[in-house]
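Reviewers of the previous submission asked for a worked example of the structure-prediction workflow described in the proposal, so we include one complete record here. The input consisted solely of the amino acid sequence. No template or homolog information was supplied to the procedure at any stage.
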Amino acid sequence: MRHSNVHQKLAAKNLRTLGEIVEFYPLTTDTIGTALGLIHEFHLHAADAVHLPACTNLSCEAMLEDDEHIASKEVIEHLEKQAIKLVNLEECQ
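From that input alone, the workflow returned the following structure tokens.
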């Protein structure tokens, strides 16, 4: 059963490419614990909340996003305290 319009071969190719250019951070108990606190603090979805501690732990300079949940003033301030710039992809177009 197909759940999207993305062809499986294209999806697999995209995932392999992503694996070559993106550093993946392991989802540890500490990361989940931090994310749980951020869910409540910033009213985030779980998937959004996990990105914040992973980005911090990887010492990222910037975090790319296109999600209004992450682009709140409070989240931006949280990231700035970690010296991480939030880049809204919609504003880059």
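DSSP finds four helices and two strands in the chain. We consider this example representative of the routine output the project will generate in years two and three.
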